[in-house]
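During the second year of the project, the team shifted from modelling isolated chains to modelling whole assemblies. The rationale, set out in the original proposal, was that interfaces cannot be judged from single-chain predictions alone. As a representative example for this report, we include one of the complexes processed in the last quarter. Its constituent sequences, exactly as entered into the pipeline, are reproduced here:
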Amino acid sequence: MSTPLINTHGIWAIYRFEMARALRTLWQSLAAPVITTSLYFVVFGGAIGSRISSVDGVSYGSFLVPGLVMLSLLTQSISNASIGIYFPKFTGTVFELLSAPVTPMEMVAGFVGAAATKSIALGLIILATSALFVPLHIEHPWAMVAFLILTSITFSLFGFIIGIWANGFEQLSFVPSLLVTPLTFLGGAFYSIDMLPPVWRTVSLFNPVVYLVSGFRWSFFGKGDVSIALSLGVTALFLVGSLIVVAWIFRTGWRLKQ
Amino acid sequence: MNPILSVKGVSKTYASGQRALEPVDLEINKGEIFALLGPNGAGKTTLISIICGIVTPSSGTITVMGHDALRETRAARMRIGLVPQELSVDMFETVLATVRYSRRLFGHPGHDAHIEQVLRDLSLWDKRNAKIKDLSGGMKRRVLIAKALSHEPDILFLDEPTAGVDVALRRDMWKLVHRLREKGTTIILTTHYIEEAEEMADRVGVIDKGKIILVEEKTELMKKLGKRQMLIALQEPMDAVPGDLAEWHLELADEGHTLRYVFDAQAERTGIPSLLRKLAELGVGFKDLETSKSSLEDIFVDLVEHREQAA
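Output from the structure prediction step:
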């Protein structure tokens, strides 16, 4: 029996397993984002947005779309990937992953690949839902897709780390609900940071989500709060940082192995 | 013959400071059934978890079919299958999906007649489309065995395979183990049921408090350490063993109704004929005689107690 250089069957097994988990709850996976997005449009687009004519020359309804996609993308990437690795730890089935001839990076490829796939699909569903409410305008479609993929992978990786870190279900929801959601709300998902007083504008620049939302919005309207290069740089930095943490986790066996 | 698995100086101290395993040396031969026997908490699961890559050893080396298990992890792990003690299996998957998942995870394509064969061998083929949560505990354990066998391992670890298992499954499991051995699979099982080791194993290793106390062919072990005893059921109960019988070191049991004589079955002179003559001489009447051989269980208890006294 030969030893393969890359265990493609193993990566594929994890990927399929994770995708099957989502397909089992396909109805929730589809219905939840569609309903949530619709609600945001009703509340922010309809009720409040009618009093705000436009932001930077873009109608407020359209202006909301990139922020809404990002909001769901971040929280869903994190929760998808974190549950994916936390659940085997919780049920004990992680023994099989640890004893399998699968390298850490192959394991990450399977888990994060599946979580990112789900997030990308989710982002596209939200975009499609948005199109029902407002005219959709995408100036740089390829950049939009690239941002969608890059953000999904980065935050799935971040979620994977949280899943390994978490020792209980409350910790699992702690980061998405108490850190990521506030940062996204304060990250210009629903407004341009130019609308803030100067002090808060400066504070906002320390929020990494600002750069994600801004870059993503740039791909739609050709302009953002910060330059596209800076947006890309911060996102890439976050990706690299997450990769380093994952590599460290597997080298030390932290929270995975005794 | 080169051992198929070789463990050298492997020890484990957990982060809590608990010393689970003293440096252990162990060699397993190809095609044998090896039973690791020891009480709960002796370090059995820790040792096999280290060999399978689930626990990181504090020291030592492990060689699996010539591959360093800590460096060439892929090559070593592809050859090992593990059936854990706990019923850790994904409840929402079907039997077929979860077994196929295991086969892929260990580097094989998923579609294979081998999966069908394994499921048929374990009487799981009819249940292949059932969700695991709907299966009984015994069936779940069969699924775990099927998962471990899905990638045709050369070495199979069974951690407490029959703990909490019904009689039918235990019998099936023993049959399966023998069938696997005939195909050349090396099997290492941990157990605290001595009858299981006695029934299945070719060699037995006794582990206690993180140390392997002894490794021996099962038959040798029984021969070397096995004692026989004779129980003499008396017609009239005794208060004490008569002084004339001192040379046989008899004990009184059953409130003076029984005399017990322990003798070495391997010795040239068992002392039985002379004892019986002496009893007749003294006019001690008896209703019944019964001799028995000590089981592996007695040997084991002896060994562990000896060590406790020595410590």
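The first strand of chain A starts at residue 54 and ends at 55. The two ends of chain A are 30 Å apart (CA to CA).
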